[in-house]
């Protein structure tokens, strides 16, 4: 089986595009409900809390400030998608769920195969069985109470160990989500654009800057600069998009740096638009990026949130408490932070 990171792997771009095509089939996307498609494809359930993820997992545990906010988000999304809160897990995270079962099984098989191969190479004549991955006495102790008391009705030891190996592989599966979410978010946005009633004249993901009309290549010797997503029309309009599902403090410096690179490479006198599309829920981060200025202008022409109404519900912005939620509400009402629906209507043909 191809590795997850390979060009043929389950998280590769060809497979991501195939999954997006399968999800949409021949359906046209309504901008007003496009956020639902994005959530169905990419939103996931935090396995540490059992509720929909809208903030960092370690800050969303019971007893932490973001746990009640995450509960509000989970309940709101469930109602909007028309499903019971306990059933939401079956109606989101579609792309990840399509591949992770096969990946988990393949990794469990590879785990035992590699272990046995090493044992046979080191001890070809020993004739004794050695421990293999999954032979964890602590996990055995956890599942022991679930076993039938009658030994004749119990599953065999190999069967138990096979299940435990899958448990190990599944526990590591969240580390692979980043492989899907990073580039997959861009691919999903492109998939939505392609299925608008009137798609833009031009758009693509991970495009070299010099391949976008009106931009020159970066200096010789510098790495090729790629844009997450760009959208263009026949009137020389160019929209450069940084698509980040969420953004952490250590990555925020990259956003103005990218913009400076784009400005230096812009050959046309026509200005270009710079847009951040995100599902970030932290009010301070949203406010900071919506108000950041550089080169005597706002860094972003607009900040696009997948679903601003969800942000409004989570932070009770009808009666905001604190300076950041209050500022966030003002920015949303002023149109500095808009929804995916409004942005899609603005870039469609």
Give me the secondary-structure category. alpha/beta
Principal-axis shape? globular
Low-pLDDT segments: none
Distance between the termini: 41 Å
Strand order of the largest sheet: 1-2-3-4-7-8
Number of helices, where a helix is a run of at least 4 consecutive DSSP H or I residues: 13
Q: What proportion of the residues form beta strands (DSSP E)?
A: 5-15%
Query: How many DSSP-defined strands?
Result: 8
Largest sheet: 6 strands, mixed
- In helices, the fraction of residues equals 40-55%
Cα radius of gyration in angstroms: 24 Å
- SSE order: HHHHHHHEEEHHEHEEEHHEH
* Mean pLDDT across all amino acids: 88
Description of the molecule:
- The two termini are 41 Å apart.
- The protein has 13 helices and eight strands.
- Helix 10 packs across helix 12.
- The strands form two sheets. Strands 1-2-3-4-7-8 form a six-stranded mixed beta sheet, sandwiched between helices. A two-stranded antiparallel sheet has the order 5-6.
- Strand 5 and strand 6 form a beta hairpin.
- Helices cover 45% and strands 11% of the residues.
- With 349 residues, it is α/β, with parallel strands linked by helices.
């Amino acid at each position: 089986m191809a590795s997850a990171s390979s060009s043929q792997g389950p998280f590769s771009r060809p497979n991501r595009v195939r999954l997006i095509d399968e999800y949409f089939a021949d359906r046209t996307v309504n901008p007003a409900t496009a956020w639902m498609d994005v959530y169905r494809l990419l939103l996931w359930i935090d396995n540490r809390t059992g509720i929909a993820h809208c903030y960092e997992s370690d800050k969303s545990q019971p007893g932490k400030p973001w746990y009640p906010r995450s509960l509000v988000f989970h309940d709101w999304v469930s109602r909007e998608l028309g499903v019971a809160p306990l059933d939401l897990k079956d109606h989101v995270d579609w792309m990840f769920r399509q591949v992770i079962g096969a990946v988990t099984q393949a990794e469990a098989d590879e785990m035992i195969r590699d272990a046995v191969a090493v044992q046979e190479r080191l001890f070809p004549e020993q004739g004794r069985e050695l421990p293999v991955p999954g032979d964890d006495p602590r996990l055995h102790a956890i599942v022991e109470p679930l076993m039938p008391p009658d030994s004749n009705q119990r599953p065999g030891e190999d069967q138990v160990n096979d299940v435990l190996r899958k448990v190990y592989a599944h526990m590591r599966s969240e580390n692979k989500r980043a492989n899907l979410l990073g580039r997959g978010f861009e691919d999903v946005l492109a998939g939505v654009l392609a299925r608008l009633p009137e798609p833009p004249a031009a758009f693509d993901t991970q495009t070299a800057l010099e391949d976008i009309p009106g931009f020159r290549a970066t200096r010789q010797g510098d790495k090729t600069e790629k844009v997450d997503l760009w959208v263009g029309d026949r009137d020389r309009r160019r929209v450069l998009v940084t698509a980040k599902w969420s953004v952490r403090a250590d990555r925020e410096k990259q956003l103005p740096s990218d913009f400076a690179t784009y400005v230096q490479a812009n050959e046309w006198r026509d200005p270009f638009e710079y847009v951040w599309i995100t599902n970030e829920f932290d009010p301070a981060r949203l406010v900071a990026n919506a108000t950041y200025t550089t080169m005597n202008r706002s860094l972003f022409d607009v900040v696009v949130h997948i679903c601003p109404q969800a942000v409004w519900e989570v932070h009770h912005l009808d009666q905001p408490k604190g300076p950041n939620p209050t500022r966030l509400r003002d920015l949303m009402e002023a149109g500095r932070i808009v929804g995916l629906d409004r942005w899609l209507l603005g870039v469609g043909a």
